[in-house]
Design a protein that fits this description.
117 residues; mainly alpha
Length: 117
């Protein structure tokens, strides 16, 4: 079939679908058999699991925890507030973590941040 425009598909019906097929997307999850460091739980867990890990582990051990791994999670106010609570319970202060107090308008954190300098 050809047309005056030279496009062989112009004006032609190529196919008709009676129903749209359902598409399933399967994502490979990295199977972590042993969770030893914060990066492991970030890859396989949700925020609740991450907070539980942070409560249970020694955050002063650099093999287990690195602040740079979680700064992006502090954008979430509820996660930030829970993390600050854990940090206070463990008597740990991290200046960059506390700067998120400004973003979230967390007055106690802002005061602690100002006192630290």
């Amino acid at each position: 079939m050809s047309s005056k425009s030279g496009d062989p598909c112009s004006g032609a019906i190529l196919a008709v679908a009676k129903e749209i097929p359902k598409i399933q997307v399967v994502l490979d999850k990295k199977a972590i058999t042993e969770i030893k460091k914060v990066e492991d739980i970030i890859l396989s867990g949700n925020k609740k699991d991450i907070l539980t890990f942070l409560k249970e582990k020694d955050l002063c051990d650099e093999k287990v925890f690195n602040f740079n791994s979680i700064y992006w999670l502090l954008e979430d106010k509820s996660f930030f507030l829970e993390f600050i609570k854990i940090m206070k319970e463990k008597c740990i202060f991290d200046y960059t973590t506390w700067t998120y107090s400004l973003k979230h308008e967390y007055t106690d954190g802002i005061m602690e941040l100002l006192k630290s300098k």
